[in-house]
């Protein structure tokens, strides 16, 4: 992220809302929730708000910003609250007089519950609560959706590891889903935000921006790890199928040291030949002698059929052990990673197929690209921010919507709280909450209750 004029981080129609509230309005309270999921997801892993709040804290509004916004919106054809923003600059040093409360990041929350609640803190700027919706909602829905998808896949992988492996599933799973998504997203900002959301659940990534964001916003010196890996250009550059073995041998020479892990793409020409006759034949003894783990990467064809055939070919050549649960495991020197056509559905199909064939999940890992960081919209988890209460002349009253034509869009009235119950987390009215799970994370321009990635990971692992 970089310095920007926050006043311009808005939908155009918001600029005229200061003229549309009831005349005696002092405060507006709004909330954010996931109203459900178009994919049938029942829970969310809340994440990402702190990145936005730290940027907001670091970039107070200036009169230069106000002047720029005034000129732009006048030319754009919409109203602009010059006096309101000028008041914020002179009265608060450009810091936004709002309070934002949120569930701690990493918390697993059933859909249709309050995740964030905010209100203005100065009765002279009740319009500010709604003004921040565009930026605030964007800062929440995308990283929460990525973190939720990643968390769901982690649960799936753990289930199969428990069923088919003797290894500690909690430890083994952390490197089973690698982030390949950086080149497939819309911007560096998306790579950083989405990439660090994935790292809530896993520790494997090739998205360097994710590491940078984890350091900058969540106090994590090194959030994820990678390994030396080939791509097709570094294999095909050696000169065609007859030189394929030379390219692989060079990877082994350069990187395959005792304890190292090295990934080599195998489908530049004939994946099955590479698995059977090169990795499993010509180079087999060199691979074993290196003391490293060579991870063979199929990268084309039907991911279920190809990964199963590659596993069988490698087992034919390297042999296998049978663990206590009756599943076959390759020797430590050779493994598989699938990095093409990977999504939650294909991962489950591959793991199920492996299980049916008596092959342990520990033999394979996955690299996930666009489906991990880019295949979502705000409607994936049906995110919305709605006003729920307004204070006029010192008295709070409920605000809500209840559209006849779409009952699912009915919003919650009143000032809200999130509480623990015997049946899990539940949204109640603020006055009915003994202990509110929502914590104040932003007050009058300053970030509160700063969270670390380490703490967020602990929370999401419960």
Can you give a write-up of this model?
The structure is a single chain. By secondary structure, this protein is of the alpha+beta class. Helix content is 38%, strand content 19%.
CATH class wording of the largest domain: Alpha Beta
Looking across the biggest beta sheet, what order are the strands in? 14-13-1-5-3-17-18
Q: How much helix, percentage-wise, in residues?
A: 25-40%
**Strand pairing plus helix content: what structural class?**
alpha+beta
| Number of helical regions | 16
What is the first-to-last residue Cα distance?
31 Å
Distinctive features:
462 residues; alpha+beta; nicotinate phosphoribosyltransferase; TIM Barrel; 16 helices; 38% helix; elongated
Summarize the structure.
The protein is an alpha+beta fold and 462 residues long. It has helices at residues 49-58, 63-76, 82-92, 128-131, 133-164, 169-172, 188-198, 208-218, 232-236, 244-255, 271-282, 284-290, 303-318, 344-356, 370-373, 453-460; strands at residues 25-34, 43-45, 98-102, 108-110, 114-120, 177-179, 261-265, 293-297, 321-322, 328-329, 334-338, 364-368, 383-392, 395-398, 416-421, 424-429, 439-443, 446-447.
């Amino acid at each position: 992220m970089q310095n920007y004029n926050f006043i311009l981080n808005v939908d155009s129609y918001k600029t005229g809302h200061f003229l549309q509230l009831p005349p005696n309005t002092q405060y507006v309270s709004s909330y954010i929730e996931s109203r459900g999921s178009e994919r049938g997801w029942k829970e969310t892993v809340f994440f990402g708000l702190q990145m936005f709040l730290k940027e907001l804290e670091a970039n107070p509004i200036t009169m230069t910003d106000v002047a720029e916004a005034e000129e732009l919106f006048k030319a754009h054809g919409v109203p602009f609250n010059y006096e309101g923003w000028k008041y914020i600059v002179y009265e608060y040093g450009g810091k936004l007089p709002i309070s934002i409360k949120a569930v701690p990041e990493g918390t697993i929350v059933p859909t249709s519950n309050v995740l964030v609640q905010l209100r203005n803190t100065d009765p002279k700027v009740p319009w500010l609560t709604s003004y921040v919706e565009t930026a605030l909602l964007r800062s929440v829905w995308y990283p929460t959706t990525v973190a939720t998808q990643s968390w769901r896949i982690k649960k799936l992988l753990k289930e199969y590891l428990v069923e088919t492996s003797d290894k500690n599933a909690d430890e083994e799973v952390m490197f089973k889903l690698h982030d390949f998504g950086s080149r497939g997203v819309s911007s560096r900002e998306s790579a950083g935000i989405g990439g660090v959301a994935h790292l809530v659940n896993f520790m494997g990534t090739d998205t360097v921006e994710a590491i940078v964001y984890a350091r900058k916003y969540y106090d994590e010196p090194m959030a994820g790890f990678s390994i030396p890996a080939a791509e097709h250009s570094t294999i095909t550059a050696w000169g065609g199928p007859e030189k394929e073995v030379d390219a692989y041998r060079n990877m082994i020479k350069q990187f395959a040291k005792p304890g190292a892990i090295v990934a080599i793409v195998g489908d530049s020409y004939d994946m099955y030949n590479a698995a059977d006759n090169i990795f499993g034949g010509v180079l087999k003894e060199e691979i074993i002698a290196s003391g490293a783990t060579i991870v063979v990467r199929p990268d084309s064809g039907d991911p279920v059929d190809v990964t199963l055939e590659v596993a069988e070919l490698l087992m034919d050549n390297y042999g296998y052990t049978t663990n206590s649960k009756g599943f076959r495991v390759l020797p430590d020197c050779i493994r598989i990673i699938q990095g093409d056509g990977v999504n939650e559905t294909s991962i489950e199909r591959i793991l199920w197929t492996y299980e049916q064939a008596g092959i342990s999940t520990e033999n394979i890992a996955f690299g996930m690209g666009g489906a991990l960081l880019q295949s979502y919209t705000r409607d994936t988890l049906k995110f919305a921010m709605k006003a729920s209460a307004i204070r006029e002349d010192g008295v709070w009253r409920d605000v809500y919507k209840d559209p006849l034509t779409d009952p699912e869009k009915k919003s919650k009235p009143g000032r809200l709280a999130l509480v623990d119950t015997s049946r899990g987390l539940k949204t109640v009215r603020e006055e009915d909450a003994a202990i509110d799970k929502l914590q104040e994370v932003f007050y009058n321009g300053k970030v509160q209750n700063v969270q670390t990635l380490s703490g967020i990971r602990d929370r999401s692992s419960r």
